[in-house]
Amino acid sequence: MTASRFTGGVELATGIGLRSPHYKHILSEKPTVGWFEIISENYMVEGGRPLEVLDMILEQYRVVQHGVGLYPGNAHGVDRDHLKRLKRLIRRTNTPWISDHLCWGSIDGSMSHDLLPIPFTFEAARKTAANLRMVQDFLEVPLAMENVSSYGEFNGDEMTEWEFLAEVCELADVGILLDVNNIFVSSVNNEFDPMEYVDFVPPERVAQIHIAGHSRYERFIVDTHDHPVIDPVWKLYERAIERCGPVATLLEWDGRIPSFEEVWTEARKSETWRASALAKKGDDAAA
């Protein structure tokens, strides 16, 4: 099963995030990497070193855009100026799809610069989906929404997080960027079964998967992207691949960033887990 409708028909395997500490290594050594994910907002500028590096990367690699500032859950709609600048970058990168987070983050023009949780209500789902339909129509490229990590729940929630994610993406007819580390983090903090989450997500909508590490504290864990991926997260990834097929996979490492080789080696562990999942899927089909 593939999610080609939500990837522009492009199939990718393993990639990593493009981060500035690795610029020099990538440009000089030209490592064999499937694709790079960029944070859109880092390159939504008029010029300078970031765009210069991006153009050199684009000469040799496929780049997929991932954003942190769309805020589709905003009650008063999405920032039009942000969309115009995002569309200019899309034309520059020729990204086959774009992704951002299912959250809100600004009000009356004031930006929180954080991924704030949306109440899981039917009204919020309808308003968020309406924003996303407008965004996808304007950007003219497939759009995928990522589940965010959470550290609490609203008393007024009318459905589970995984039901809300599916409801919004069905109403908006957009894809899903399934972050299995975020699922694990939220499951520990909010005490639910993370495998139930993975088993509920509509597999035909999953365009991409994120894997990452996190930090554990006494009472909760935080999605810090500064450690290797732990086995329980790999297990969720394996199950997601078993259900969704060989979906594009991206390792996020954003804090205490190690060498390029260490990040790439960690990302390539996904190949073993992916092969295991697809073998299970084949065995089940043959049974």
Automatic annotation (TrEMBL):
<protein>
    <submittedName>
        <fullName>DUF692 domain-containing protein</fullName>
    </submittedName>
</protein>
<dbReference type="InterPro" id="IPR007801">
    <property type="entry name" value="MbnB/TglH/ChrH"/>
</dbReference>
<dbReference type="InterPro" id="IPR036237">
    <property type="entry name" value="Xyl_isomerase-like_sf"/>
</dbReference>
<dbReference type="Pfam" id="PF05114">
    <property type="entry name" value="MbnB_TglH_ChrH"/>
</dbReference>
